[in-house]
């Protein structure tokens, strides 16, 4: 049943290329048009949207944080992301031109369900991104885009997260096309890159053994810190969450720019810091900025574990360990950079003797508030 893998989690990590391919299947035309007819929101509805709110919990929330960068960049519609448990109780400003996107693997998470009910009561339109056919969240939403990840058995979410990202990219591209923000050739270029992701992940997974070794070496670390910028920031949060829930270790993710505002004081001799580095080919100064953050933490004694794009040699002088991932455009990079962090957490947990698939105190679907 685990298909030759030691744990369901490893099996599900290995299934990510297929899960992504399945989530893209039938939703793209050759000319790069996104076809989301199943979403049941008319083009006019989508043109009327003037604000997007993404609500979710845990890992699904992290996918929403990534989506914000893509949706705002492609559509120019303001997009906010909020923990469902907070959204519900703070009287958010919503109306019929607000699109609320509720992201949930199980479709049964109580906090997310309550957030969507609240949004509907305020007349917002609710679109669910969900992995479970016929579950409560999609049934109560105005529209749904299913992720085709297949059943996820391990408590820690892996393939569901990557397919949530893909669904968010599709929604962002679709909104942009319908509203005329993005030209067909630009969208086509992004779609072309999305279609290449499954093979790139296969390539990445084929070379993943050094990450497992490194994880075993670090199993006794008292804390592990994760830093990133832009879409690498939610990836850092996700890497830390995986480590907490599976290895029961203290771990924290930070926006790299925030280090000097406090967290850098945590760094001691040998503290492992996982640094998620964007493509050097990306926009702006992002890459150089994080390279200097890596330099800063290393100067204070950190043991730096750098996740960077193939061919990025600028990180080498400051990296104690480098994990290269295949090249992909900046906004899509979380589809690559998350994977070593999943494997890392799984392997540390196993090395510490924990049940990787059934971590203590956690349930696969959280149906209480
Ligand atoms: C972490 C994890 C949880 C879920 C969260 C939301 O690995 O699995 O953080 O992401 O409980 O669950 P869903 O997506 O089912 O609403």
Automatic annotation (TrEMBL):
Subunit structure: Homodimer.
Protein's cellular compartments: Cytoplasm
Name of the protein in its database record: Glutamine--fructose-6-phosphate aminotransferase [isomerizing]
One annotated GO molecular function: glutamine-fructose-6-phosphate transaminase (isomerizing) activity
Active-site residues (renumbered): 364
Metal-binding found in the keyword field: no
Catalytic activity: D-fructose 6-phosphate + L-glutamine = D-glucosamine 6-phosphate + L-glutamate
EC number in record: 2.6.1.16
Keywords: Aminotransferase, Cytoplasm, Glutamine amidotransferase, Repeat, Transferase
Record domain SIS: where: 42-181, 214-359
């Amino acid at each position: 049943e685990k298909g030759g893998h030691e744990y369901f989690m490893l099996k599900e990590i290995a299934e990510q290329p297929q899960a992504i391919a399945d989530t893209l299947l039938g939703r793209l035309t050759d000319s790069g048009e996104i076809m989301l007819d199943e979403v049941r929101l008319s083009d006019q509805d989508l043109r009327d949207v003037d604000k997007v709110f993404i609500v979710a919990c845990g890992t699904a929330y992290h996918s929403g944080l990534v989506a914000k960068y893509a949706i705002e960049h492609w559509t120019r519609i303001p997009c906010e992301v909020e923990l469902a448990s907070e959204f519900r109780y703070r009287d958010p400003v919503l109306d019929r031109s607000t699109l609320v996107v509720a992201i949930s693997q199980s479709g049964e998470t109580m906090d997310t369900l309550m957030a969507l009910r609240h949004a509907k009561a305020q007349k917002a339109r609710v679109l669910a991104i969900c992995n479970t056919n016929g579950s409560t969240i999609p049934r109560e939403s105005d529209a749904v885009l299913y992720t085709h990840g297949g059943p996820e058995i391990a408590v820690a979410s892996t393939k569901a997260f990557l397919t949530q990202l893909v669904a968010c990219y599709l929604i962002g591209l679709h909104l942009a096309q319908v509203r005329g923000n993005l030209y067909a050739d630009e969208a086509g270029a992004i779609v072309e890159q999305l279609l290449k992701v499954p093979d790139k992940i296969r390539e990445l997974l084929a070379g993943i053994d050094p990450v497992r070794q490194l994880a075993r070496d670090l199993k006794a670390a008292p804390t592990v810190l994760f830093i990133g910028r832009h879409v690498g920031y939610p990836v850092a949060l996700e890497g830390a969450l995986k480590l907490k829930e599976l290895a029961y270790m203290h771990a924290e993710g930070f926006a790299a720019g925030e280090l000097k505002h406090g967290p850098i004081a945590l760094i001691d001799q040998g503290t492992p810091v996982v640094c998620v580095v964007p493509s050097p080919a990306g926009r702006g100064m992002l890459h150089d900025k994080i390279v200097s953050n890596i330099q800063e933490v290393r100067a204070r004694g950190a043991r730096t574990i750098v996740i960077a794009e193939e061919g990025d040699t600028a990180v080498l002088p400051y990296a104690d360990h480098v994990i290269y991932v295949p090249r992909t455009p900046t906004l899509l990079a979380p589809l690559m950079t998350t994977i070593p962090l999943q494997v890392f957490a799984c392997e540390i947990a196993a090395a510490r003797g924990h049940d990787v698939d059934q971590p203590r105190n956690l349930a696969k679907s959280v149906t209480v508030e």
